[in-house]
Amino acid sequence: MDLFFWLSKLYEFIRFRFHRYPKFPLFHLPYLAIKQVIESMSVSERIKLSQTSKRMATFVRMKLPFYYVFIRDALSGLFMKDQNALLYCGREIHKFAEKYECLTSLDYEEWLPKNSSNLKKTELLFHQIQDIFPSKSFGVCLFLSEIFETTIEQIFEIPAFQKCDRIVLYQGGIASIHLDKIMKMANDKRDIVIRDMFKNLTIRFEKQDIEFDWSVVLRDVAAEKLDNSSFLMPASIMTSSSYDWIAYGQGFASGLLAVVSTGYIGYLATKYIQKKKRDVMLVDMHTSNVVLQGASVANNPSNVNVPLMLTVAYEQRGVLREEEYGDSTTTGTKHTTITGDMRFLGVLGNTFGKQMGAILLEGYYENQKFTTITWPILRGFSPLPILDNQSAYTKFLDIESMSTKYERIMWSGPSFDGA
Amino acid sequence: MSVEPEVPIVQVEEVRENPVLYKIISSDNHVFTISEHAVKLSKTLWDLITNLGLTAENALDNPIPVENVNGKNMETIVQFCERHKYDEEEPEYTNYIREFVLPEWDRQLLSIDNEELFQLILATNYLDIQKLMDYCCRVIGDMAKDKTPEELRIIYGIPTDAEDDALERSASDSPGPSG
């Protein structure tokens, strides 16, 4: 026992003995009033209240829709974003956690044995919180660059964590053997989300080497049909500020899983809602030659939330063309490939003396043709459709952090019919 | 229904603006007048008014007795309802935590001792005034701020598990109504 512990106990004793607390007979209130008092409390207050007695714990119990278990050694814990709360398994608090309501092991000492490992404490904390705030859905977030005390195998040997609905790999590299294990945990109900990683990494999956020399961020999102003409991608693409530019895509197309572009490299992932097949496109715009790499995704997903899996990769290279459109000249290399009922076009070239690149996507959804475009642009996005038959649901989001190294890249490319 | 007031009628200033007034008699025979908009905040009172068929013409001649609420609490309730009668409806809370800032005026109104607050909550619960209930509960919830579980036990008078068990045992050991 350290000195701090005993001093805090002494302080507590003196406070209880001499402080005059306001007294309010909570249990004498009607049931609904008690519930309402508890509802007015924050997560941390409810957690503390639940520790007073088992009876009170039943009052405090409340279902939450989703939260994360995050693993990063001593800074592991639970993150409830909507409730603005961070619950740590140890005494330390992350330096960026100030804006959240934070609880540490000091706030729930009884739940966590002192000599346990941080992973064990996190597991116990998770069970306790599941009792108070049961959630049908939760995610496990691994901060790969900050996990030294345990391994991915040990984390997912915990039965409770095996039931997670989302696995997020964040920051840092991962050995292909571990990645394969995680990818094999993918199923119809579990998303695999990869953020800020894969740099300088070659993974071998299903006898196919896939080289990643950029930081790829992808997020498995389900397209959601809003009405007859518009679709919404509920999640946009996450980004890393450490790269020159990152194009965001949202509402890209009904079948699109994610769009990410970092540096000169674009990443497209598609997901078909109605088909038992979906494709992933890797678009490499690193050189003057545009390389479209498509990786078919097997696994016959029948559910829109099926996570990404890469199986077979292929590549098509095209020829250089020069075309004039009104005042601007587009010189570039165009490549198209057809996958199912979607067609992709990658372009890299010069317009107005600026280097540009774009990825177009054309396809059909419910017998309606759509065309859309992703801009590897640097500032702002086009508010208006560029192409004649560009769908109304094409939408681009601005991004916070972009380099001033490049100017806004213009696109005045042709429609796909001429490609 | 006709109860003669023994104390002067309490007039809240805002009430005079509204032509339709209702009279409410508290359990200790204090009489209050309240405007139509204000009384609508209380589901119980408004149901009663609707069921009794009170109108603008006969409302003042037919005071509504409220046996469960004393004059002091009723005065607070009338003040609160008059103050908030034109408020827009609160949006449903979505993130599972009721987050709102208690306005200063209401905080002052509810700066009463805990026994009075307890009685006010019972009255509010009886009269079914959601907004006042929210505010009262927030005041009680605020007592939990920055407190340890042990402090919360003292403040809210929460029995320990052992005390709860003992209470349960004694309840099960005691003879029932027939025995």
TrEMBL record, chain A:
Transmembrane segments: 245-269
PROSITE patterns tied to this protein: FBOX
Cell membrane keyword on record: no
Keywords: Membrane, Transmembrane, Transmembrane helix
All copies of domain F-box, residue ranges: 23-69
Protein name in the entry: F-box domain-containing protein
UniProtKB/TrEMBL annotation, chain B:
Entries under SMART domains matching the protein: Skp1
Domain of life per record: Eukaryota
Gene Ontology process terms (BP): ubiquitin-dependent protein catabolic process
SKP1 component POZ domain location: 23-85
Residue ranges occupied by any SKP1 component dimerisation domain in the UniProt entry: 130-166
Keywords attached to this entry: Ubl conjugation pathway
InterPro entries in the cross-refs: SKP1, SKP1-like, SKP1-like_dim_sf, SKP1/BTB/POZ_sf, Skp1_comp_dimer, Skp1_comp_POZ
Pfam families: Skp1, Skp1_POZ
Family: Belongs to the SKP1 family.
The protein's name in its UniProt record: Skp1-related protein
Source species of the chain: Caenorhabditis latens
